[in-house]
Amino acid sequence: MDSGSEAFAQTHWTLVLRARGDSPEARAALSDLCGAYYAPVLAFVRRSGLDEESSRDLTQEFFTRLLARQGIDTVDPQRGRFRSFLLGALKHFLADMRERAQRLKRGGGQLHEPLDAGTDTSPGIQLPDPNTPNPEHEFDRKWALTLLDRALILLAEEHKTAGKSAYFETLKPWLTGDSEDISQAEAARQLDLTEGAVKVAIHRLRRQFRQHIKDEIGQTVGDRAQVDEELHHLLQALL
Fold first, then answer.
1. DSSP string covering 176-233, please?
2. Model confidence over 176-200: pLDDT tens digits?
3. Phi/psi of residue 120, nearest 5 degrees
4. Which of 57, 130, 203, 225 has the highest count of CB atoms within 10 angstroms of its CB?
5. How far apart, in Å, are the Cα atoms of 29 and each of 15, 62, 145, 167?
6. How buried is residue 31: exposed, middle or buried, by Cβ count under 10 Å (0-12/13-18/19+)?
7. How many domains are there within the chain?
8. Vertex 8 angle, CA 6 and 14, to 5°
9. Is the Cβ–Cβ distance between 201 and 171 less than 8 Å?
10. Measured between alpha carbons, how far apart are the two ends of the chain, in Å?
11. Cα separation of 127 and 142, whole Å?
C-alpha cells in the first residue's frame, strides 16, 4: 500500500482501529463504536422477522459478544468497509443463534441455557426467519441515517463552539429537507442578512455537511476511492 493509502487508513480508520485490544481506552472506543451503529444492527434484526423486544435482546447480545471477545480485532482496513464487516458478523451471529436454538429444541443431552434473562417459564427470544425479504436494505438505510445524524451533530457542535448556534438552527432546514416550513426571505430576516447572502450561506453549509458525511464514511472504509462509492450506495439506500 502506498504512503497516501497508509495515511488515509491511519487518519480515517481511527474510529475502528482505536477499538482494538483490551485496554480501557480500546474498550471505551469499542463501546462508542457499538453505540454509534446500534440502530442499523437493530433494524436488520427487526426486519428479519422478530418482534421489538426480541430484536433488542438479540442486538444487545450481539454487541455484548463483540465487546467481550474483542471481535473488532479481526477488522483489516485493507479489506474494505467496516459496514460489510459488521453485517457479516451479524449474519454469522444470527445463524449461530438459530443453530443453537434448534439444537436445544432437539435436546441431545445439551445443557439448556436461556438466551435472555427471563425465568424458566418465559418464552425466550424468538429467532429470525432467514427467508424474510431484504433486511439488508433496512440495515443500509439505518446506517445511512446514522451517518447523516452524526455529521449533523458535528456540524451543530462546530457552530455552537463558534457562537453561531442560532445561525445554524435557522439554516438547518435546508440540510434536513424541512425548508418548506421557512422561506429564504424569512431566514434572511431572522439573520439580518440579504437573501443573496442566505443563498451563499446555505450553499456553504451544504458543502460542509457533505464533507462531514464523507469524513464519517471515511472512518469505516479502507481506501480513499471507496468514499464516494459508499456515499452513493448509502444515499441510494435512502430512496
1. HT-GGGS-HHHHHHHHT--HHHHHHHHHHHHHHHHHHHHHHHHTT-SSTTHHHHHHHH
2. 988 888 999 999 999 999 999 999 9
3. -65, -20
4. 57
5. 7, 17, 21, 32
6. middle
7. 1
8. 100
9. yes
10. 35
11. 21
Averaged over 64-70, what is the pLDDT? 71
User: Looking up cell 454487541, which residue turns up?
Assistant: 63
What is the CA angle 221-7-72, rounded to 5?
Answer: 45
Spell out the residues 6+ positions from residue 123 whose beta carbon is closer than 8 angstroms to its own: none
For residue 63, give the H/E element and its range. Answer: helix 52-68
Buried b (16+ CB within 10 A) or exposed e, 88-108: ebbbebbeebeeeeeebeeee
19, three cell numbers: 477499538
Which helix (H) or strand (E) element contains residue 34? Answer: helix 24-36
Counting residues of the chain whose pLDDT is more than 70, the rounded percentage is 75
pTM of the shown model: 0.67
pLDDT band at 233 (very low <50, low <70, confident <90, very high): confident
